[in-house]
């Protein structure tokens, strides 16, 4: 039988000088093309995991101990020169504050071109073609009027899509999205979640989706890892964790979902991801859609498509 190695496998702890044991024995794997949701409350250490994987914690005074294996190589053993090659090219990153992540003094065209030249070389025509392709992949205009704008002239949703375009420009094997919808309005949140699902399907990139919003993770991911007090306390398929949570914190998270998800039987068939819906939508509307997933056929004609994985 073929031994299929995960794309990413981590097992590490993190210490800060004034906060020892910030993360304690964090373990999880991520397969090729898989979407894994990392869920935890604010301050639990989700962004610290993101920075640790990218070997950027030292900039904040943090120290990582353990292993971070990506594409068969331990990133912990790589020199900074090799990590600079991997960041942006093989591992893309989408941050939660799009307007503060973009340079306010540079036009969008300049920033996209710099993102391309960081890991590629070629003519201006080559650069323009790759930029246009990246913008098209995130449903943004490719005309000169849009490219000549500054970040302040974009909506926050457009700015987030620009960041995603930069992150996917080089076709990374892994995309890390750190709270990418937290600064967006509810309609744009749903659009961005759908965009990640589309990119996963068309590009095949794996996704580590970091969020404190469990419903957004349910609408997108194949598996969920629960982070609590610096530890991964539970990790498994969405169906398993929703129907049969074992850790007390996971049970509290599931119990906080709209009524209809907190009375699950393991015998009841589940279909995930749940239908995409604005995260701030009316609670009753969200509950109706969620119940339709938990009880197939409850709403005629509404059958969500299971992930192709």
Brief summary:
The chain has 12 helices and 10 strands. With 309 residues, it is an alpha/beta fold. It starts with 7 loop residues before the first strand and ends in a 15-residue tail after the last helix.
Overview of the structural elements:
- The radius of gyration is 20 Å and the shape is globular.
- The protein starts with 7 loop residues before the first strand and ends in a 15-residue tail after the last helix.
- The model is unreliable at 261-272 and 274-309 (pLDDT under 50).
- The protein has twelve helices and ten strands.
- It has a single domain (8-294), classed as P-loop containing nucleotide triphosphate hydrolases (Rossmann fold, 3-Layer(aba) Sandwich), CATH 3.40.50.300.
- Helices cover 35% and strands 21% of the residues.
- The chain has helices at residues 46-53, 80-86, 98-101, 108-117, 124-137, 144-147, 156-168, 186-203, 214-218, 238-243, 248-255, 283-294, and strands at 8-16, 19-30, 35-39, 63-70, 73-74, 91-94, 174-178, 206-211, 223-228, 231-237.
- The strands form two sheets. It has a six-stranded mixed β-sheet.
- The longest helix has 18 residues, at 186-203.
- By secondary structure, it is α/β, with parallel strands linked by helices.
- α4 (108-117) crosses α5 (124-137) and α4 runs parallel beside α7 (156-168).
